[in-house]
C-alpha cells in the first residue's frame, strides 16, 4: 500500500500548492508511520529545550508572577540581554484598586499646583511626595542617608541601589510634563510593590518645570493590557512605559537641559540623618555598606571640615556585582572593572588615588580612612559622605559638565579635606567609552564652561582664597 506524502518546507509547516509537483512523492505507509514518530519526537525535544516565546522567565529560577497586568504596560515588552542582578522578589496579587475599580497609583493625592519654587521660579518642587513606610525610623536609626536623583529614563537603577543600601534613601525625581508624571506614577507604584526596601526606606520628591501644565497628557488608563509585569525586569518595564511619551514631550526634553544641581539640592535636603551620601541614581553602593559606615561614623572624628570619599568603579556588564573589595580587585585584574571614567575623562576621579586604595590591606571588614586626597585636581568630582552643611550645588549649572565638580571645587576652596574610605566602594554598570558619548553632552559642557568663569570669581571673593589650580 502506498501513501501520498507532503514534504514540508519548514518544521510544522506544510505548503502544497498544486504547481509544486516535486513536493509530493509516494512512500509505503509503514515508512509514513516511522516519519510521523520521528517528527513527534523532534517536536517533543524542541519544546523541552526551547521555552515558549511568551514565557520570558523560562530557563531562570524566577518565581512565576500571579499579579494582574500592570495597567499602562504595552503587550510587547522588549527583551533585555541581562536582567539586573536583583533578589528574586515576586508580588503576589494585583495592583491595589479603589472602590470604583480604578488603579490606586503612587502620587495619587498629590496636587502639583502647590509646591515651593526654586530661586528663579523655573521649577516647582514637591518635597516628600511619597514617604517610605519606615523612612522616619530608618533615619533615626542610621547616621547616613543616601540622597540621589534621577530623570524618568534612569529610574530603573533604583532597585539595585535600594537592595544594597538598607537604610534611608531620599530620591529626587524630575518630570518634564504630564506624560512623564503619569509614567512616574505607574513605575514608582511598580517599584514599591516589587522591592520591599524601596517601599520601606525610599522617600520621593518631585521637581517639575514651569511649563509642566502646557505639555501634553497621554491617556494611559485606556490602554488594554493583558500581560503580567515582572519584578525581575525593571528596565524593561520602564522602557515599555516610556513609549507612551509623545513627540512634543521628547522635543521639550531635547531643548531644555536636565536640572542636575536643582535635583541634587532637593535630594540632599530630603535627608533627615546627620550625614548625607550624595550619588547619582546609577551609582550602586557596595553590599552591607550601611552597617559598615554606621559603625565607622559612630567614632569618626574630623578636625575642621571633612568629606569622606567613596571610590567609584566601572563594572563590565558581563561581570557579577562584586560582594567585597577583594572580589572587586579580582575583576580589575581580569579587565572587567576599572576606576570610574578612567578612559573617558581621567580627571573626573583621578585625585582619589585608586592605586593607593587598591594596595591597602586585604580582607578588611571595618571601614577606615585609607588615605587623604593630596593631589586635588580641578574637575575632580568624587562621590562623598559629609554633614549637610557643605556648599549647595549652584543651580546655574544644568545638563552635563561643571555640575558636581563646581560644588566640589567650592568645598576645596572653602578648606574641606577629602578622606578616602576603605573597603566600601560604589560601582557603575558598563565600561565607559568616549565614542559612545552623544554630541549634545559636549555642547552642554561648553555652555557650562562659560558660566564657570563667573562662578569662579564669585568663589574667590566669597572665601578670599585663590588656590591657582
UniProtKB/TrEMBL annotation:
GO terms for cellular component: Golgi membrane. It catalyses: 3-O-[beta-D-Xyl-(1->4)-Rib-ol-P-Rib-ol-P-3-beta-D-GalNAc-(1->3)-beta-D-GlcNAc-(1->4)-(O-6-P-alpha-D-Man)]-Thr-[protein] + UDP-alpha-D-glucuronate = 3-O-[beta-D-GlcA-(1->3)-beta-D-Xyl-(1->4)-Rib-ol-P-Rib-ol-P-3-beta-D-GalNAc-(1->3)-beta-D-GlcNAc-(1->4)-(O-6-P-alpha-D-Man)]-Thr-[protein] + UDP + H(+). GO terms for biological process: protein O-linked glycosylation via mannose. InterPro entries: B4GAT1 (IPR043189). Keywords: Glycoprotein, Glycosyltransferase, Golgi apparatus, Manganese, Membrane, Metal-binding, Signal-anchor, Transferase, Transmembrane, Transmembrane helix. It is found in: Golgi apparatus membrane. The chain crosses the membrane at residues 26-47. The keyword Glycosyltransferase applies. It comes from the Eukaryota. Pathway: Protein modification; protein glycosylation. Its main location: Golgi. GO terms for molecular function: glucuronosyltransferase activity; metal ion binding. Belongs to the glycosyltransferase 49 family. PANTHER family: BETA-1,4-GLUCURONYLTRANSFERASE 1. This is Beta-1,4-glucuronyltransferase 1. The gene is LOC117572044.
